[in-house]
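Hey L., structure's done. Input below.
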Amino acid sequence: MRKILFTLCLVAIPLCLISCGDEEITPTHDEVVQGGDSPTMPNQGDGLPVSVTEKTTCNYTTQATFTKSGTGDIVRFVGIIPIPLTNEYQTVKNLTYSDGTLMEDANYGNKALVNEKSSFPSQTLTMQSNFEITTKSVKVDFTKITIKDYDKEGEPYRKYLGNRGEYINTSHPFIVNKGNELWEKSTDIIDYARKCYEFTASYFRYKNGSFRTLQQILDDGGGECGDFATIVVNLLRYKGIPSRHIICLKLEGGFHVWADFYLEGYGWIPLDAQMKNANPRGDYFGQYNGECVVMAKDLIYDYNLTDININFLQNYAYWYWYSGDVTRFYVQYTSYKS
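Output:
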């Protein structure tokens, strides 16, 4: 009897460096990544009053090796790794990558390397990207900002509001009640955003685990960095403030996620509630230290892949269908600077 299995792996591995064996991968494509937002300042409209300092320039590699275990016949395999773009926080150039197709997310313009196969003749498949990156630290001067009404026809307002599956639900009673409470105590949008950041940092606890839905965060009383960002984004979007997750790899190893919110006429402003939770005396509102590689923005992407939904992409994801005997895949992932 023919049997087909669909499997998804979309979790951030808790270790930053995992050995992928001795095989050398020679990139078969060469492309300069361009696009995204300004490579020097997070400006839109009149420009954000911000100090930007180039922090680190280095070569960086990401690699995922998929190893098949079992004797079943693979009838479809899809592997994907995110590809960073030049944006407010970094400049990316001299990209090379292994076999696959560079595809653009129709929702937010993210990019990813996609390798789709109708069979899997070898036991392993390695996907790799190499690029040069210059990261930037950012600090916003809020004393020079004048609040403006949102352009409801503009891209930030159209794209970065509303719900996102089980992760962003602005009608959830907790979000509604807490959002109203914080709003009543706020003097303007910036003050409300700061109160959301401070509340999230102090109310929730850091807890290991994979990327949680909104309800799971509330049930667990906390989560990891991406979960702190989820709470902030829910609270901001509830009051009509465009906001999004910023999904990263750390230059020195590991993973991180923070939130951005948008001010009309100025641009995107970073805030990191999980860092505030870890260091209550620190200031992570309107500041970013330049220690990460931004891999994707927001949640739920559209790479035009049949029967595949991608909610969150930080390092790799894969899906496969097979017939015959039970078949599994094991993945080794590494990311590092050189």
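The first helix runs from residue 155 to 159. The chain has six helices and 17 strands.

-- N.
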